[in-house]
Design a protein that fits this description.
binds 3-methyl-2-oxobutanoic acid, 8-stranded parallel beta barrel
């Protein structure tokens, strides 16, 4: 049973009422049972509800919202307050999925006390259950301190978008032997630090498979091949809402851009042609009020004559 206080959702279908709350403990059990784990990003109440009710295990309020929702060029500009605003909205829409919040650039790199304070805000003000931090073994001590503050942490290694300027672009990581060795060290260090799960982004399938076999924490891949314990994709990517050439690993499972464009164009056309709204889509006066109004109007017309 979930101990997370969440407001009731009267419209939830029955099968959802029967679903078990996903926890950091149940994720580990899933890895042991070799049952694939699903994760999607969500950034607002409506999509959070749709994703949660569809049965996705983990919902990540990713700092990718900098691009998908706010139109920034990369993830570096998004602030704690902007992230919190979205985490709170998503919290209100999630019932069963595990809710993770991405710590934005600058919220944990400068000072460990700051990092703990910011992680605490995501839990206290946003209702997040796990915070996610980018970086490998150099983050292990910080991750231990955040866990000591009773906050589960998700690691994120490989292509870490907050390091875009250091990496010199969004490039697949771990392609030579020394880079593979470093990734293995990173994964093991974070596993030992006690991460609740480990995101593996933009690394060769073979390396992700080795890491997945080596660590006890569940690995969640994005552009890291099928051997990971789970897969994550960005909500806007799977629905063609990103306005650009998608990365190699993205599969479009639907075309929301086409659906929305069609709906918006049809609305426009039907307003312009006066087909919308119809009489059935209009409110009407009660009979007695209409009759009384008619009498008043008729009297006015008579007086004007
Ligand atoms: O911000 C994000 O959406 C992420 C996932 C892609 C892992 O970090």
């Amino acid at each position: 049973m979930s101990l997370t206080p969440i407001a009731g959702h009267p419209g939830f279908p029955d099968h959802n009422e029967l679903r078990q709350k996903v926890t950091t403990a149940s994720l580990r059990e899933r890895k042991l049972r070799r049952e694939p784990i699903t994760c999607l990003t969500a950034y607002d109440y409506a999509t959070a509800r749709v994703v949660d009710e569809a049965g996705i295990d983990m919902i990540l309020v990713g700092d990718s919202l900098a691009q998908t929702m706010l139109g920034y060029e990369n993830t570096l500009s998004v602030t704690m307050d902007e992230m919190l605003h979205h985490v709170r909205a998503v919290r209100r829409g999630v019932k069963n999925a595990l809710l993770l919040a991405d710590m934005p650039y600058g919220s944990y790199q400068v000072d460990a006390n700051d990092a703990i304070r910011n992680a605490t805000r995501f839990v206290k003000e946003g209702g997040a259950e796990v915070v996610k931090i980018e970086g490998g073994e150099k983050r292990a001590d910080l991750i231990r301190r955040i866990i000591d503050a009773e906050i589960p942490v998700a690691g994120h290694i490989g292509l870490t978008p907050q390091s875009v300027n250091v990496m010199g672009g969004y490039k697949v990581q771990g392609k030579d032997l020394s880079a593979i060795e470093q990734l293995m060290r990173d994964a093991v260090a974070l596993d030992r630090a006690g991460v609740a799960c480990l995101y593996l982004e933009g690394i060769p399938r073979e390396v992700a498979a080795m890491i997945t076999a080596e660590v006890s924490t569940p690995t969640i891949g994005i552009g890291a091949g099928p051997e990971c314990d789970g897969q994550v994709l960005v909500f806007h990517d799977i629905l063609n809402l990103t306005f650009g050439q998608p990365a190699k690993f993205v599969r479009r499972f639907g075309d929301a851009a086409a659906l929305i464009t069609h709906a918006v164009q049809t609305f426009r056309a039907e307003v312009v042609s006066r087909q919308y709204p119809s009489d059935a889509e209009s409110y009407h006066l009660p009979k007695e009020t209409r009759a009384a109004l008619e009498t008043v109007l008729e009297r006015k017309r008579t007086m004007r004559r």
